[in-house]
């Protein structure tokens, strides 16, 4: 019996041979690296060839892999042409409801220009920014078509969804100008843990918070004395308190530009803040989905000037 291969495997194979990298293929396809590695093992068995081999610090396609790449590219091109929906998405004529969940600390900076950009391109559409629920609820909403796109600071709770990195930026600590540590340039981890904190993440979901989740990995939880439902409220509390708000640097700098707040470097152990775009497989190839993800990326990149971002297909 001849080996079988499905369309998903063909797309993974094409991307692997194109990128010569498991990690880059994972980003391009919105899949995890373990999933890509597992598929590569299956493909090697199917074609009885390594397909990609190590050459120094890089991966290169074998001769068989190079031959397969050209054939797969032609096949996928024909399939995409066959499956393409009639006509492109024209935002200027669309009257659809655009529903986005924005669950990350930079929402107050990105959402206003995003709404403006969507309205400018699609004046007949209606934009709804929806309060997030649990990861399971969000996955179900995407599956049911109740929401179109998710912007989140965590990707790992959303397995089996398409994803792509949106932004990457430094973390910073915002404190009142009157705070005893306001004269510091950077907090050490020991100093950071000795202070009282305010967080927009409820205690029940700290493991999913990019900051508290990282601290749990380090085995050093911080002392969160106040939680609020949104960053907009936290920014009003910090100038009048002795609490520390840890957030993405662009948000902290926006606070300092408008409020009596000082920005301190966060402990390097906390790493960086990431934001991700998440969407369902069924909207991956839709012209509307492409347009919406492209619009969000453009707005985020122009607003925040991220240090690194990768395109979402």
UniProtKB/TrEMBL annotation:
Keywords in alphabetical order: DNA-binding, Transcription, Transcription regulation
InterPro entries reported for this sequence: LysR-type_TF (IPR050389), LysR_HTH_N (IPR000847), LysR_subst-bd (IPR005119), WH-like_DNA-bd_sf (IPR036388), WH_DNA-bd_sf (IPR036390)
Coiled-coil segments on the chain, per record: none
HTH lysR-type domain span: 5-62
Gene3D superfamilies reported in the protein's UniProt record: Periplasmic binding protein-like II (3.40.190.10), Winged helix-like DNA-binding domain superfamily/Winged helix DNA-binding domain (1.10.10.10)
GO MF term (any one): DNA-binding transcription factor activity
Annotated family: Belongs to the LysR transcriptional regulatory family.
Name listed for the protein in its UniProt record: LysR family transcriptional regulator
Source organism: Harenicola maris
């Amino acid at each position: 019996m001849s080996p079988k291969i499905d369309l998903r495997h063909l797309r993974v194979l094409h991307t692997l041979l194109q990128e010569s990298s498991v990690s880059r293929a994972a980003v391009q396809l919105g899949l995890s690296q373990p999933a890509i590695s597992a598929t590569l093992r299956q493909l090697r068995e199917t074609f009885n060839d390594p397909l990609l081999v190590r050459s120094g610090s890089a991966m290169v396609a074998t001769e068989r892999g190079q031959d397969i790449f050209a054939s797969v590219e032609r096949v996928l091109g024909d399939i995409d042409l066959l499956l393409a929906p009639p006509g492109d998405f024209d935002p200027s004529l669309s009257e659809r409801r655009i529903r986005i969940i924005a669950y990350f600390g930079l929402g107050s900076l990105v959402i206003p220009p995003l709404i403006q950009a969507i309205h400018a391109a699609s004046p007949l559409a209606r934009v709804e920014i929806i309060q997030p629920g649990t990861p399971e609820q969000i996955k179900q909403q995407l599956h049911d078509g109740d929401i179109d796109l998710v912007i989140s600071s965590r990707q790992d709770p959303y397995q089996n969804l398409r994803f792509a990195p949106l932004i990457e930026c430094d973390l910073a600590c915002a404190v009142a100008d009157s705070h005893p540590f306001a004269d510091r340039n950077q907090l050490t981890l020991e100093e950071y843990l000795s202070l009282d904190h305010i967080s927009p993440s409820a205690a029940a979901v700290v493991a999913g918070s990019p900051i508290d989740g990282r601290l749990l990995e380090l085995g050093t939880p911080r002392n969160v004395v106040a939680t609020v439902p949104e960053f907009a409220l936290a920014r009003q509390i910090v100038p009048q308190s002795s609490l520390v708000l840890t957030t993405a640097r662009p948000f902290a700098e926006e606070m300092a530009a408008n409020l009596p707040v000082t920005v301190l470097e966060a402990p390097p152990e906390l790493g960086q803040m990431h934001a991700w775009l998440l969407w369902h497989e069924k909207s991956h190839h839709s012209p509307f989905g492409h347009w919406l993800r492209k619009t969000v990326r453009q707005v985020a990149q122009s607003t925040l000037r991220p240090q690194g971002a990768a395109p979402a297909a």
